[in-house]
Structure formats: C-alpha cells, structure tokens
Amino acid sequence: MKFSTALTAGVMLLTELGGVSAEGGGFFQSCKGDWYMENQYMIAECRTKSGGWRRSRQDMNKCVTNLNGQLLAWNNGGFRATCGLCSQGGLIIDGAPKNSRLQCMCINNAGKQDYTELELSKSPALFPSRLAN
C-alpha cells in the first residue's frame, strides 16, 4: 500500500506540472504511439488541451525499478542504474494497446543481463493525465 500511495502522489505532482492533457483516456489514447526512450525519459507527442500536439516526456526513473532483472512499476525506482538498451515494444498482447511495452536489458542479482519488459498500459498509475514537459 505504501508504494501505491507514494506512486499516486508522484503522479499527481506530475499532473500538476504538465501542460499536455489526456482528456478522458490516458496516455495511450492521447499520445501518438511512436514514443521512444531517451536515457530515462519516455518521449512522446501528446495532444494539448487546445487540440494541437506537443512533445512531452515522462521520467521513467521516477516510476520504474529493476528487481532481479525484472521491470516493475515502483515509486522512485531508479531503473536506469541497472538497465539499458531500452526501447518501445510493438507487440499487441492480451488486448494491450500497440507499442505499450517498455523493453530493456537489466542486470539480475547474479550480475547477468536479462531481457525484460513492462506492460505500461496495465500500470495506469505510471501515466498522469498530463505528462511533464
């Protein structure tokens, strides 16, 4: 519960700071599907309140962690310290939106690299209704 409360508080803060709106549908309904990773930032073009498009970013270090080679939604997770080669996943699985997976190579407890992915659409607390700019 502590993790969930902290993550929700962080998302609310990002919502207040951002200027891009995801009116009634969240990130995957209001941002273009061709997002990409730049260091720890997820970069996307998202619809503004006025209907235009704006480049927005989400610091994924603030909401994703590496736990023994597996990506998990976690407040202030700092995943980039032990993960790299991150990219967008394009498979549609279990009805998830296209391009909704974060895929990375992460170091596990044995010091080996594991390929891992996180289904972002099943972690709605990761995405505020507005992304930080």
UniProtKB/TrEMBL annotation:
Keyword Signal: yes
Cleaved signal peptide residues: 1-22
Cross-referenced Pfam families: CVNH
Boundaries of every Cyanovirin-N domain copy: 27-121
Annotated keywords: Signal
Lineage top rank: taxon: Eukaryota
Entry keyword Signal: yes
Protein's name in the database: Cyanovirin-N domain-containing protein
Species, as recorded: Triangularia verruculosa
